[in-house]
Amino acid sequence: DQQVKQNSPSLSVQEGRISILNCDYTNSMFDYFLWYKKYPAEGPTFLISISSIKDKNEDGRFTVFLNKSAKHLSLHIVPSQPGDSAVYFCAASDSGGTSYGKLTFGQGTILTVHP
Amino acid sequence: DSGVTQTPKHLITATGQRVTLRCSPRSGDLSVYWYQQSLDQGLQFLIHYYNGEERAKGNILERFSAQQFPDLHSELNLSSLELGDSALYFCASSVRAGFNSPLHFGNGTRLTVT
Q: Cβ contact (<8 Å) for A101 and B94?
């Protein structure tokens, strides 16, 4: 049972345009969401997060939107740069109980930004 | 550089064997997490330690065990290895044990079981 899904295995965009990466979740207990970026031969790097009390969080070129009713979140990168080419993982967490930072990851989306 | 060190980077071993993966967290981080990434899969949570104590367990097999030592480094022990255990094993650390303390990942140990 995959509780966090990234339905697009890959995405290709032109430099300077917007990249939109999508993520859906099924577990209603999830209330904290994160995006990680991963380059080959490296570990994932934290990018941006959002709590369920918000519907938008922005950090420079990166904005995450959360639609709780649809159980959907998206990451917008504007403008996209070739250095953004990487695998992007969506992750979710349940802040209650004993989860203590246990993250449920999606399968990842490979983003390629062409010069 | 995340500051999290994992050794070894690569490990090749045979079925039935036992291996130990090591993780040194970032300086000052008390929480250590272990994740497994199999081919074409997302990262799967295995186990979480905070300041030497086990805090949460995920889908970790009984053949796998972990511990965090007084100096805060952690080891993941995998025994009776099977072909399906071949994967990337990531360690991550964070300052606190809470959900909103971002994880910092090491570069992983690639385990190949032949």
A: yes
Asked if pLDDT for residue B42 goes beyond 90, the answer is no
Contacts of A40 (CB under 8 A, 6+ apart): none
Q: Give the tokens for residue B42.
A: 């997302």
A55 vs A29, A63, A71, CA distance in Å?
16, 10, 11
Q: How far apart are CA B46 and CA A34, in angstroms?
A: 18
CB–CB contact A101 B40 (8 Å): no
Q: Which two tokens stand for residue B5?
A: 């060190």
Q: Say what the pLDDT of residue B2 is.
A: 83
Which pLDDT score, from 0 to 100, does residue A8 have? 95
Cβ contacts of residue B2 below 8 Å, gap of 6+?
A43, A45, B26, B104, B105, B106, B107
- What local confidence, expressed as pLDDT, does residue B97 receive? 67
Q: For residue A41, count CB atoms less than 10 angstroms from its CB and return exposed for 0-12, middle for 13-18, buried for 19 or more.
A: exposed
Q: Which residues of chain B approach chain A closer than 8 Å at the C-beta?
A: 2, 4, 31, 33, 35, 40-45, 48, 50, 55-56, 58, 90, 92, 94, 97-108
Q: What is the pLDDT of residues A49-78, one digit of tens each?
A: 999 999 999 999 999 999 999 999 999 999
Looking at residue B39, its pLDDT comes to 80
